[in-house]
User: Which sequence fits this backbone?
């Protein structure tokens, strides 16, 4: 299995990037939940609140590309892809009700699904591509069609970032042996969000190392998503209702 070579120069570890992604995601979700889900339509929202929301969301746009990059790294280094996908699906299930409550103020909102489903479909797409690869690492058309099907499922299911999310994961996987191409292509794909391409500045400095991350921290990163959504759901539905 091919992986990126570890850089000799100092840089950011995987753990440091995870922390950056979690912090920017939290900032983003404070805007989406505590402000947007609470105030509703823009014309009824005070301009100062709208400006604050815009700042929070612009900062938060950095999170998703970082998570996608780290997902590819995790896939390249995992010893059990099935367990990897299973963990993502498990936390997708655990996160769905908090996600709906935080952003839609209802425990069951069928139109949108949380980002763990997108990440799980992204890993599935990479696994199907890898399974069809020849000795030179070129995926057969069957693998490419299977990856496309994963993107279509994400779009139809309304997962966070939908087809473009799965497509970004696949693109980062296909360019895994060249950080320059990863950053250029990834930034280009995320141009529809003004600040999202800036995430690839951080990713350029990834040093190829996991960094200090004990077992409890690994599960803490997984659990951060449903836990922070639960807290935001409580604030949005009880304190700011």
Assistant:
């Amino acid at each position: 299995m091919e992986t990126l070579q570890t850089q000799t120069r100092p840089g950011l570890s995987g753990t440091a990037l995870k922390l950056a992604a979690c912090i920017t995601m939290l900032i983003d979700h404070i805007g989406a939940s505590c402000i947007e889900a609470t105030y509703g339509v823009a014309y009824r929202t005070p301009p100062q609140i709208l400006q604050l929301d815009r700042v929070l969301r612009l900062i938060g746009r950095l999170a998703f590309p970082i998570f996608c990059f780290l997902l590819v790294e995790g896939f390249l280094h995992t010893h059990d892809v099935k367990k990897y996908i299973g963990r993502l699906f498990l936390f997708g299930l655990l996160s769905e009700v908090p996600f709906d409550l935080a952003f839609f103020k209802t425990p069951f909102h069928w139109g949108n699904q949380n980002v763990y489903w997108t990440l799980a479909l992204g890993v599935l797409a990479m696994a199907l591509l890898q399974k069809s690869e020849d000795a030179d690492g070129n995926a057969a058309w069957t693998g490419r069609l299977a990856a496309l099907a994963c993107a279509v499922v994400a779009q139809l299911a309304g997962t966070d970032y939908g087809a473009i999310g799965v497509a970004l994961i696949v693109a980062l996987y296909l360019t895994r042996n060249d950080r320059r191409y990863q950053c250029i292509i990834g930034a280009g794909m995320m141009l529809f969000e003004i600040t999202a391409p800036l995430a690839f500045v951080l990713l350029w400095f990834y040093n190829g190392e996991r960094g200090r991350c004990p077992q409890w921290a690994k599960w803490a990163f997984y659990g951060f998503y449903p836990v922070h959504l639960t807290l935001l759901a409580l604030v949005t539905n009880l304190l700011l209702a």
